[in-house]
Amino acid sequence: MKRLDPAMLHAYLDGDPVARLAAQAKVTLPLTSQRWLDESAPKRLIYNALYADCLSPGGPASLLDVGGGLTLLTPLLASTRRYGLIDPLFHETAGSLSAIREASGGFEHFDSDWQAVDPGRWDLIVANDLFPNVDQRLGMFLDWALPRAREVRLSLTFHNTPRWYALQRPGLEERLTMLAFDGARTRAALEPFASRIEGWTPDLFNGNDGSVFPNGRQVVIVRLQGDLT
Ligand SMILES: C[S@@+](CC[C@H](N)C(=O)[O-])C[C@H]1O[C@@H](n2cnc3c(N)ncnc32)[C@H](O)[C@@H]1O
């Protein structure tokens, strides 16, 4: 378990393997998640922390990517193992999905909320930049994912300086104000799963120094042992 800090970013940038692999990609497409990787060194560091062992042959034999988006590295993930993507792909086009699937030799795509799907069993389930900033159901997700996986890896994004958003619910007149999770709420959602978390260090959620993102967000990388052996 680790919280991103400037020293980690500095060490990552020594080789920047995610940028190198993207530069060698065989397909070129305007993909939103790829643009985020191109524009943000911290996003590349996180990507490397979660997926490095899946970017070449070896590593987990199956990978379920929840909210994974599409990048130029998706074909690398998908061509050397069984790959599944649960993502309504709010940021990508149907044409991009077809092109990336073709470049990957095909993969399972679930165009759905993760909670509505039973995707079967997987060696590894990853959720990158989904919980709890985009989807606040972090504890429910772990109840869903752990019985289906040998291992679950997450990047968790929270704000220890209060941050909130005005939201319009589809079809309703009411405007909601959503307060982003802070470290204390993120830690509280994880605590029931503490015995499964590699190197459980709850103090990591207290810090508000050294964010590597311009908006001050904090990101913790977590690995949990799933139920499957
Ligand atoms: C912030 S983006 C992160 C994308 C990618 N993982 C990355 O780091 O660039 C959140 C992703 O989660 C997907 N998403 C949002 N709600 C979801 C849900 N309930 N179930 C599955 N995916 C979801 C979005 O379509 C989007 O691709």
List the helices and strands and how they pair.
Elements: E1 2-3, H1 6-13, H2 17-23, H3 32-39, H4 41-51, E2 62-66, H5 74-79, E3 82-86, H6 94-104, E4 108-110, E5 122-131, H7 138-145, E6 149-158, E7 164-168, E8 175-179, H8 183-190, E9 218-225
Helix pairs in contact: 3-4
The chain binds S-adenosylmethionine.
The site of S-adenosylmethionine has 19 residues, from helix 3 and strand 5.
How would you describe this structure to a colleague?
This protein has 229 residues and is α/β, with parallel strands linked by helices. The chain has one domain (2-225): 3-Layer(aba) Sandwich (Rossmann fold), CATH 3.40.50. It has eight helices and nine strands. Helix 3 (32-39) packs across helix 4 (41-51). The radius of gyration is 17 Å and the shape is globular. The mean pLDDT is 96. It binds S-adenosylmethionine. Residues 33, 36, 66-69, 86-91, 113-114, 128-130, 134-135 line the site of S-adenosylmethionine.
